[in-house]
Amino acid sequence: MNPHSAYCIALVYGVLSLEYKWVELDKMGVRNNGISQRKLVTTKLIVDEIALKDVPAMLQLVKYHTRSRNKMIYIGHSLGTTAALMYASEYPDAAANTVGLFVLLTPAYKLTNMRSPYRFLFPLLYPVLDISNALNLVQLVSRGSTRNVTRPLCLSSAPLMLACLNVMNLFLGPFTQISPETIPVYFNQVPGGTSLKTISYLTEATRGQFRKYNYGVGETDLCMGAIHHPNMI
């Protein structure tokens, strides 16, 4: 990389889901009030906070440390594209003054953007998430719990790894192929930065909607001043 050219900086959301000790703010954890760190992540992290709090803070931090007066180029992938769309929709002036170009890769928005046959399964997410929430199974989407399932299943033998590889390539689409050597790396990171509320938000894609998170009757009015969760655009 040319040291005199523009900086390339990776922005990471959902750092708490990594469960590293260095992200704790005090000896009691990250403002958890007795709640375990894993449960804090699986129940509290939502897309709205990523887009409207994390993204502006990260962009301002990058601008401060690079001392650059030029506008940035934001390159987002998957949920990073959704967060960029939400950020620019909610703060159009700030986005126009800070970012000169948004490059959105595989946007996690509507099902029309997905070529994978798994798009037909998305309508089933709502009842599955409702049942998971009702049975207090929210930790199923946490990083540690998912690894406990994927590692023994997909990394125990070559045939199982090949089966998992075929499932992943089917999910990622016909023009993307993951090599076998990247399987351990992939499953060591999935599902970093996710939560029940994050996945619940993504199910809005099945309805072609682009809204803020729905906290439910009463709480949405308290948090957003509206009976129904408002549109982002």
TrEMBL record:
InterPro entries assigned to the protein according to its UniProt record, in alphabetical order: AB_hydrolase_1, AB_hydrolase_fold
PANTHER family xref list: LYSOSOMAL ACID LIPASE-RELATED (PTHR11005)
Name of the protein this chain belongs to: AB hydrolase-1 domain-containing protein
Signal sequence extent: none
A Pfam family annotated for this UniProt entry: Abhydrolase_1
Entry coiled-coil feature ranges: none
SUPFAM superfamilies attached to this UniProt entry: alpha/beta-Hydrolases
GO biological process: lipid catabolic process
Keyword Lipid biosynthesis: no
Residue stretches making up the AB hydrolase-1 domain: 30-126
Keywords, in A-Z order: Lipid degradation, Lipid metabolism
Species name: Exocentrus adspersus
Top-level lineage group: Eukaryota
